[in-house]
Amino acid sequence: MTEKFSNDPRFAAIEENLKIIRESIAFAAGLSGRSEGDVRLMAVTKTVEPIYINHALSLGIDLIGENKVQEFLSKKELLRLDGVQAHLIGHLQTNKVKQIVGDVSMIESVDSLRLAKAIADVSKSRGITTDVLIEVNIGGEESKTGLEPSMLPEVLDEISEMNGIFVRGLMTVPPFDEDISKTRNFFSKMHRLFVDIGAKKIDNVSMEILSMGMSADYEAAILEGANLVRVGSALFGARQY
Ligand SMILES: *Cc1c(COP(=O)(O)O)cnc(C)c1O
C-alpha cells in the first residue's frame, strides 16, 4: 500500500465532507420527525483506495458499500473492518454468489428470484442465513437492474419458502432527474411499497431497511422515509475510474 503523507489534502476534505453530510442527515431526519440516529449512513467506497476508506473508518463510519465482488475482495484485507459492516450494493451475477456469501453482512441488490435462490442455496450449504434487500426498479427503466414493483408479491412469496435468506427491506436507485421533486415522487412510491409489504406477515421478510438516496439526493430520500443512505462522491470526492 502506498503511504500517503498526512498532509494529503484529501484527508481533511473527507473529514469536512463527513461533517457536512452528518449535519444534512440530522436536519433532514428532523424535518421528517426523526433523529439523526434513525438514519444510517453508508460510505460507498467503489474505486476509492483503502487508505482513504480507512480514514473514513477512523472518523466513525461503520458501514461501507461496494459494487463489485472482485474489487471488494481484493481491498478487504487492507481495510480496518473491526466493528464495521460491509454491504454489496452492485449487480450480482449468479455465478459470483459463491465468492461473496459470508463475506458481506448484507446483499442489497437482489433483483431476481434466480439470484435469491442462488444466495439461499449457497448460504444453506454453509450453514448461514444471508440478509438481503430487494432492489426495486421504481422508475421502470429498461437500462436499470432491479425488480419491477409488480413482481414483488410473487418474488417475496417464493422467498418466504426458502431457507438461507432473509429479506430485511428494499433498495432503489431512482431515475436521474434534474428536478428533485420527480425524484422525491419515486422515493415516496418506494416508501409506500415498504409500508404495504411491512404490514403483511410474510415468512423470511421483515421490512426494516429502506435504502435509498445517494450524494445528489439523500436529503430528499430521508424526507420520504429512507433509513439508510448510500453516499460516495459527496464524501470521498469525484470518482476516478
Ligand atoms: C455508486 C453508488 C452509490 C453512491 O453514489 P454517489 O452518487 O457517489 O453518492 C450509491 N448506490 C449505488 C447502488 C451505487 O452504485
Describe the structure using short key phrases.
alpha/beta, globular, binds pyridoxal-5'-phosphate, 39% helix, 241 residues, 8-stranded parallel beta sheet, 9 helices
Structure description:
With 241 residues, the chain is an alpha/beta fold. Helices cover 39% and strands 18% of the residues. It is built from nine helices and eight strands. An eight-stranded parallel β-sheet has the order 7-6-5-4-3-2-1-8. Helix 7 links the parallel strand 6 and strand 7. The longest helix has 23 residues. It is globular. The chain binds pyridoxal-5'-phosphate (PLP). Pyridoxal-5'-phosphate binds next to strand 8 and helix 9. Pyridoxal-5'-phosphate (PLP) binds next to strand 8 and helix 9.
In short:
By secondary structure, the protein is α/β, with parallel strands linked by helices. The chain is built from nine helices and eight strands. It has helices spanning 9-31, 50-58, 69-76, 97-100, 113-125, 152-159, 180-199, 218-223, 233-236, and strands spanning 40-44, 63-66, 85-88, 106-110, 130-136, 165-172, 205-211, 228-231.
Strand content: 15-25%
Stretches with pLDDT under 50, minimum 5 residues? none
Radius of gyration, in angstroms, nearest whole number: 18 Å
Q: Span from first to last CA?
A: 18 Å
H and E order: HEHEHEHEHEHEHEHEH
Could you tell me the number of beta strands? 8
- Give me the number of helical elements: 9
Assign the structural class, choosing from mainly alpha, mainly beta, alpha/beta, alpha+beta, or little secondary structure: alpha/beta
Ions, cofactors, ligands: which are bound? Answer: pyridoxal-5'-phosphate
**Fraction in helix:** 25-40%
Largest sheet: 8 strands, parallel
